[in-house]
Design brief:
Two copies of one chain form a homodimer. Chain A has 341 residues and is an alpha/beta fold. Chain A contains 15 helices and twelve strands. Chain A has three domains: 52 residues, 434 Repressor (Amino-terminal Domain) (Orthogonal Bundle), CATH 1.10.260; 135 residues, 3-Layer(aba) Sandwich (Rossmann fold), CATH 3.40.50.2300; 133 residues, Response regulator (Rossmann fold). Chain A binds a DNA duplex (16 and 16 nucleotides) through helix 2 and helix 4. Chains A, B: GO terms for molecular function: DNA-binding transcription factor activity; transcription cis-regulatory region binding.
DNA sequence: CTGAAAGCGCTTACAG
DNA sequence: CTGAAAGCGCTTACAG
């Protein structure tokens, strides 16, 4: 039988309360007693039953998710996943609240984070926007003993405990590789459409993309990035314009969330003249476009994984555990039409 | 506060024992009583605390994993994951045993399955090999009330409860798509190296591969499949021979586990003359080959996911729950050198 | 057919 | 610094 606290208590000749103190590193145990208990723990090979501990603690973790009120499919997916987590709250002993902020707005984000401090939740997860005020707000949360995780977009150099998102640099490299290979040795131009270079994840994707293009596909000429703020109409317009102006565009990398607009522009082009297209995030839109050969490959980050990982890490931080990096790494999925899930 | 069994008992005016009987569909409750309790359950919005239930039950699930004693990296990975699950046994209330059988041997597999019946475990997971005797063995397990899941390779048409593995047909299609695209419009031959067409997963991959090759890449001429029983030396030999005989092989699909041998043969070929290569399973070998541009893409099934999914499904079956298909679907991962995890 | 009581493996006031 | 007792939300003999 698996040893329990009772076995340890008996073996060490102490009470359950003392075993518990040692087990949880709580103060108020004489050194010799502690040692006796630790001895018993290791010699019996005790390992704590987390479920039972949680049941006894009756503890619930309070977390706040700060998300942009931004209606692209991916962000909607993230919100849905947070709601799914909320609906699992009972079983997972969490209490999760969502705070919405305007997108791409450092001041508003910092403000929202600062307002959370007095509530003293156990942890906060947020989609980072860069800005000194955001760094300061993170420091404020940490000072208040609140665990902090960035989600989807990171804030390196800040005091956040963890980033739950993909390596966007690697995503950009992967996109370049696919686009380079899929264009099959032909010469030509590559167009890149982004949301905004002010957002870190877009910037990193572009960097990775350009690096591989330079290293491995010198025959391809990458046009200056077009920033269309993930706005469908604007995206459609700039993509149309670019395709009109450069008939030798043979590849298109959509690294932001403007896929609907991009597809609109692409449909205007005769099938044989369409460029190879790599886009981000598997949504209803990109899924349909993959099946209809309008998009050739989709890079995806799994919103469910990200949200669940964020929650797991926050819980761990509250418990003072360290993150198991390998387990919490969010993968860059590649989907072609044949391996869509 | 979340309602508990106590709340239901109070609200329905019955004892905890009766609540428990209704909750778990156990007999011995008068119809009217049962209705009263059910009414309370739904009106209070009760949802059972599974962790507490498990604690009280003290139940452990006994499972047997029947695995081929086959030393390719992927199978070793599967075994490692089962061992990892065994080491989590305490926390997960499972008791898992591994039974090894010779690979590709239907009679031996059926024998092993038959021998498990008298032990009456709660569930069995096994890597299927086709054969009537295996179907019969599965029927025997099911007759004994044992949950049955196939792992990695399926046995459709049998009475198994679930298959924990990828859609190999889709994997083959994906491979064809990648290979077709990566060869970039050039004409030439494609070589396919497999373990054995007697194994269902290999056969399905080939079918999917050939289907897409026929549909979309008529310019490519697929050579007859080479079966090398996943044997490194033999694989090296046949691949070398093929490359020697057909200098216009521009693509290679390795759909089995013979990657080490294949790589050996590839390294003999001048860098510029090397074909585009798509292989299966991310292992130390294929990982290194990806980094060194010897392999261009790896399709992967996550052994950890498969094993954990198998265990989850077995537990669910024992509890009489139905599988949430979407959650248990095993993905076909695509890895290029830039998005390796 | 129904209920009172004990127990699963922990944690937590409270008392000393 | 240490311990006895109660309790977390369930389940399980046992008795009636």
């Amino acid at each position: 039988m698996k040893p329990t606290v009772h076995d340890i208590a008996r073996s060490a000749g102490v009470s359950l309360a003392t075993v518990d103190r040692v087990l949880n590193g709580r103060p108020g145990v004489r050194h010799v007693t502690r040692e006796r208990v630790e001895q018993a723990i290791s010699s019996l090979g005790y390992v704590r039953d987390v479920a039972a501990a949680n049941l006894a603690k009756g503890r619930t973790y309070s977390f706040v998710f700060v998300l942009p009120n931004y209606d692209n499919s991916f962000m909607i997916g993230i919100r849905d996943e947070v709601h799914a987590a909320i609906s699992r709250s009972g079983a997972e002993r969490t209490q999760i609240r969502i705070v919405e902020v305007p997108p791409f707005d450092a001041a508003a984000l910092a403000d929202a984070l600062n307002h959370i401090v007095p509530d003293r939740p156990d942890g906060v997860a947020f989609v980072a926007v860069e800005g000194l005020e955001v760094h300061a707000a993170v420091a404020g949360l940490k000072d208040a003993g609140i665990a902090v995780v960035t989600l989807v977009s990171d804030l390196p150099g800040s005091e956040r405990d963890h980033f739950a998102g993909i390596d966007n640099h690697a995503a950009g490299r992967t996109a370049a590789n696919l686009l380079g290979r899929f264009t099959g040795g032909r010469d030509g131009r590559i167009a890149v459409i982004a949301g905004s270079m002010l957002v870190r994840d877009h910037r990193e994707r572009l960097e990775g993309f350009l690096a591989v293009m330079g290293e491995s596909f010198a025959r391809l000429d990458v046009l200056p990035v077009m920033e269309a703020r993930d706005n469908p109409a604007l995206t459609a317009e700039v993509v149309s314009a670019a395709l009109g102006r450069y008939p030798d565009i043979i590849g298109l990398y959509s690294l932001g969330a403007g896929n609907r607009g991009m597809l609109h522009a692409l449909r205007e082009v005769a099938r044989e003249a369409r460029p190879v297209v790599v886009a981000h995030e598997l949504t209803a839109t990109t899924r349909a476009a993959l099946s209809h050969d309008l998009i050739d490959a989709v890079l995806n980050q799994d919103a469910g994984h990200e949200v669940r990982s964020a929650i797991r890490v926050l819980k761990g931080k509250v418990e003072g555990l360290s993150v198991i990096a390998a387990q919490e790494r969010i993968r860059i999925d590649i989907f072609l039409k044949d391996n869509m899930p």
